[in-house]
Design a protein that fits this description.
Helix content: 40-55%
Oligomer: single chain
Structural class: alpha/beta
CATH class of the largest domain: Alpha Beta
CATH architecture of the largest domain: Alpha-Beta Complex
Strand content: 5-15%
Number of helices: 12
Order of helices and strands: EHEHEHEHEHEHHEHHHHH
CATH superfamily of the largest domain: Spore Coat Polysaccharide Biosynthesis Protein SpsA, Chain A
Number of strands: 7
Number of domains: 2
Length: about 350
């Protein structure tokens, strides 16, 4: 075994057969395997891959249940192979498998290199017929990533690269698995800078299926950067939970004044505003904080919402109780007591939500 290609998939049933055909053509002369990691695609991607694997022993399938995320999928696939060289490519046919032999050649030519990166922004590379808006977003993300990396890497947002298996396994315990750019995770996790070479890549337009890039994915990129810079002091997931809670306060006050201003009774307006803020927090946490374990379907969402409201109700009592204890016992000033109550309530809500709403995280 010379080479493993790890391919994360979600709803790519129409692309995987063509991708295998292109891999077979591009890697003629190599001893290779393709490790597909599918996040339980509803379109039957995993089943199609199993059919292909019945006729081709080089194809392996890992299907993950109730777990999502491109970076975490790549990590699981890369840990599942013994190949000395491990490549990562997308399943949407935008990465040309013809680049794989050139990535391998770069690593074979220089034993000091840790990885080879397929770059769109070096001579010979390109982005095809990308729209100006998408190109501008990619360039902006690359500039931000380079500030974090403190490196002259031209394409830190590349999703196609090849790394030595030994190097990856040393880095694996340090990886966050957050976001959709595993390369950025690898580069920022290394205690000493990784040695890399860039190989030109002509990026193609998606031929079949829908793009997975959306506003949530863009936000995940910023979350991943936060994790690398500040996650060691304030855990990323808790920071997200707290930030959404702060937004919930603004939602609460907006609803309250919208109802109480025209004359609705204080208690009624407060109750409705509280319920509205809890609902806002639940759905935003479901979409962002717990995106890799988010709830789907009316039944699961209803049960999760009720559990979240119950958890937050208990958290509110903890908030008030701690604040009142500190203030009445003259252990702290009013502002400090109130802030302490807020922190205790937030930690309570986060811990119990992780356990009872979004299962064991």
């Amino acid at each position: 075994m010379e080479l493993a290609i790890v391919i994360p998939t979600f709803n790519e049933v129409e692309n995987v057969e063509e991708l295998v055909r292109r891999l077979d053509k591009a890697l003629s002369g190599f001893s290779w395997e393709a490790v597909f990691v599918d996040d339980n695609s509803p379109d039957g991607t995993a089943e199609r891959l199993r059919v292909l694997a019945q006729g081709d022993r080089r194809i392996r399938v890992i299907e993950r249940i109730r777990r999502r995320g491109l970076s975490s999928a790549c990590i699981e696939g890369m840990m599942a192979t013994a190949a000395p060289l491990i490549a990562v490519i997308d399943a949407d046919l935008q990465h040309d498998p013809d680049v794989l032999p050139r990535l391998a050649a770069a690593l074979y030519a220089d034993p000091e290199l840790d990885l080879a990166i397929a770059s769109r922004f070096v001579p010979g590379g390109g982005t095809g017929d990308w729209e100006r808006e998408r190109l501008a977003k990619s360039e902006a993300a690359s500039r931000i990533a380079r500030l974090v990396l403190k490196s002259e890497l031209h394409d830190p947002m590349s999703g196609c690269f090849m790394i030595r298996g030994e190097t990856f396994r040393k880095l694996a315990p340090r990886l966050s698995g957050i976001g959709f750019k595993i390369l950025l995770d690898l580069l920022t996790s290394a205690a000493t800078p990784l040695r890399f070479a860039e190989v030109p890549l002509q990026f193609h337009r998606r031929e079949i299926g829908e793009s997975k890039l959306d506003h949530v994915v863009a936000l995940e990129f910023l979350i991943a950067l936060y994790d690398r810079l500040f996650g060691r002091w304030i855990p990323t997931r808790f920071a997200m939970f707290g930030a959404i809670g702060a937004l919930g306060i603004a939602v609460h006050m907006s609803i309250f004044w919208l109802l109480h201003g025209p004359g609705l009774a204080f208690r009624t307006a407060q109750a409705i505003a509280t319920l509205g803020a809890m609902t806002f927090n639940f759905f935003l946490n479901n979409a962002l904080t717990y995106r890799d374990r988010r709830l789907h379907g009316i039944k699961a969402l209803t049960k999760g919402w009720l559990s979240f409201c119950a958890v937050c109700a208990v958290g509110a009592f903890a908030n008030v109780g701690v604040a009142d204890f500190l203030f009445s016992g003259r252990y702290a000033q009013a502002t400090v007591s109130a802030l302490a109550g807020i922190v205790v309530g937030a930690v309570w809500n986060f811990a119990l939500s992780s356990r009872f709403v979004w299962s064991r995280y």
